[in-house]
Fold this protein.
Amino acid sequence: MSFYVTTPIFYGNGEPHLGHAYSTMAADILARHMRQRGEDVFFLTGTDEHGEPIAQAAEREGITPQQLVDRSAEQFRDMVGKVDSTNDFFIRTTDPGHIERVQRVVEQVKENGYVYHGTWTGWYCPRCADFKNESEVGPGDTCPIHEISLTREEEENWFFRLSAFQEPLERMYVENPGMIQPDFRRNEALSFIRSGLRDVSLSRSKLSWGVPLTWDADQVMYVWFDALLNYYTALGYAREGEDLTSRFWPASWHILAKDILKFHAVYWPAFLLAADLEPPQRMFIHGYLLMGEKKMSKSLGNVLDPFEVIERFGADALRYYCFREVSFGQDGSISTAGFESRYETELANDFGNLASRTLAMVVKYRDGVVPEAEPDAALSADFDSLPERVCALLDEAQIGQALEEIWVLVRRLNRYVEESQPWVLAKSPDDAARLDQVLYGLVEGLRVVTLLLHPYLPNSSATLLEALDHSALELDGFGTRPGGYTVERIPPLFPKLEAPE
Ligand code: ME8
């Protein structure tokens, strides 16, 4: 089965922050997990490089827009690498391959009768790059998201006949209730659609930094259509000499936050339908990571640097913390204190210690050779169908709940150590068989949870799997690997933190 997951493409005038990293890590967790299941995976991220804010930022700096986005693309690529993202391609909307394909799709939309010429008058937020309906205007004609004054715009544009899709979109979401997750976001999208869809500008005339319309050289594509199309165009040119479109389109999951729900849930499927293309299968709308009270964003100026966090805690710890602390789909507060506490109690103590002491006991009591024994029935029962349960949750992009499901077993294994007291068993030769059973169960449990944790903790799970002499990443059930192999001790996976200077 093919599995195609995307993140939003991030604005090429900003600096990467933890919010961007969050969507990237979420998509990466799904991509890694699906690869473990043997699916044919494609994972896309990248940068959104056209539009007014970018042209303006470049002008303020006295550089060209291209110079600005080249620099920013490098920063985002760097961020993506540092969170250990395994994206299969990094798209930039200034790629010639993208531009060409955008032009082709929009020509098709025009040919199908969904494009006309008209005059736009209304409110516009340059930061959202969005034309606002009266219902979307905040007090004093401001943008409710960016808290800046909206501008009154009037210009000659080409329009996209969005109104023609009100009924088809409504039907689509009613008939496919799982398409937008969580459900309350689907309801939000539906109520927006039901409140009436007005046609939207497809192009801008006052701007030159964008994809030119092939039939009107004075106009460039409205940046949102240019940007949304990345999900589709990338498949056409990501692999030289190969078109991946039929293999991966429609996308399995778009991962994004609630700020851009309208564009993804309304404009995007409508535009695809207008071009005779299939809408994406599903989209997951996550919440905002909040630092203190406000969402983190560049324009609000309260940014936590993911690079600093990674330097101090490692990428695994960041990946773990974000999906453990904040319920995926809801807003949630994050803090340095929260990081440190979960790092210490869950990563270092629950998981790191379990791994260290399990391996150490096998080395100490059995010269590193995992005993060949039947596991405890009670322990087996607790692991019963664990991989299936985790798969079912991740099929629904329930990243936090799947992690919780795994962590219950991490804790179970720790309790098993306490209950069975291998160090006491080791003192009496009569208990040798029982000790074999306990050690086998512990190693097997550790192996199963480590495989399931791989998408969340790619580095520490790799270290641990190596120590367990286990090279395959496929998910495995408890009790399926017989003993008889040799394991090694490891240094602490999550060493105690030095106090910051
Ligand atoms: O909107 N918490 O780009 P953008 C969680 N270019 N996620 C956050 C976040 C936060 N505090 N802040 C940002 C754009 N994000 C467009 C997208 S897609 C065709 C075009 C994440 O750089 C989240 O995924 O503003 C959000 O939707 C995205 O970054 C917005 O990134």
In short: The chain has two domains: 2-310, 336-501. The CA atoms of residues 296 and 303 lie 5 Å apart.
